[in-house]
Amino acid sequence: MKDYAIAAIPADGIGPEVINAGVEVLHALAERQGNMRFSVHTFEWGSDYYKSHGVMMPEDGLEQLKAFDAIYFGAVGAPDVPDHITLWGLRLPICQGFDQYANVRPTKILPGIQSPLRKAVPGTLDWVIVRENSEGEYSGNGGRAHRGLPEEVGTEVAIFTRTGVTRIMRYAFRLAQTRPRKLLTVVTKSNAQRHGMVMWDEIAAEVAREFPDVRWDKMLVDAMTVRMTLHPESLDTIVATNLHADILSDLAGALAGSLGVAPTANIDPERRFPSMFEPIHGSAFDITGKGIANPVASFWTAAQMLEHLGEVDAAARLMSAVEAVCAQGIMTPDVGGTANTREVTQAVIRAIREG
Length: 355
Ligand code: NAI
Ligand code: MG
Hints:
11 helices, D-malate dehydrogenase (decarboxylating) (NAD+) activity, two-stranded antiparallel ribbon, Isopropylmalate Dehydrogenase, IsoCit/isopropylmalate_DH_CS, oxidoreductase
């Protein structure tokens, strides 16, 4: 019997709704598998914690998380707290403090879900976006001077290091190598950004030589939006910088039907620290408390967590249950259904028990 210690951080908005659903599903899955157990500890960190303590998580937060096998994260963001405080106070310190440099975002059209692309069916769009998660445009490097004066200046400096770029390229090529098509697209903007991005391209070409069996090509990020929309079937694994992949993966989520189904994994490939698994979406103020949040992204990221823990069978069982439930049309309103979070969760649990 394997016992996995999971740190749940549901945080804000619909975060608690979808993470509670995910935890319920994980327990049902463990029961069905018979050889594993999840010990889930829930941390009440986030914007409410901030309002009473002045910080999003305690100072020794990372220390408390270190002992866990994985982190299961909801969303941060509250209407009455500035977004840069919530993001830099909780999610980014975990990603950066635990050097979760590979952000892995699978996207595909699930059965029963309608893509806004007229010709797309399940299979047309089956991608994994690998996002550099430790530096680039979100390195936090920059500053403000002469605040409030007419000559005020703000800088936001993108940082690209040889170490950072090499390790994300290796991760992406290795991942592409494990997928049937062995196809990688490197996203860049080296026409306009002629320093860091040119180095990015050079390192991609160097790393490519280590993977002769992987076909790869290069796309400028603006042209990439066109290719994703018009020729989704021409893409498989994609690697991009922190900013580029942030934007492209929202597009990917939308093309696959809804942000509510898009998962993401923040991985420390060297396994020095726990990795963190979360839905891509945020707090979704407009539907918080209504009980209609789509839990599929949270289930899918739980499957990513299981894969990372080496529980490939359990991950596959969870994903087939999710796909079966979508195919039956038991879906939340964001993807055209009439079911609520509870009903989708119960249906997935049933499918796990019967599958
Ligand atoms: P959002 O992802 O919260 O919502 C965008 C739209 O998608 C909304 O209409 C929402 O109802 C819908 N949506 C999102 N997830 C859904 C789900 N599971 N089921 C059904 N519909 C869903 O993005 P928005 O509105 O830009 O940001 C709201 C707050 O969340 C902000 O404070 C923002 O900073 C934060 N945020 C946090 C993220 C994180 O914690 N990783 C990621 C994105 C935003
Ligand atoms: Mg984003």
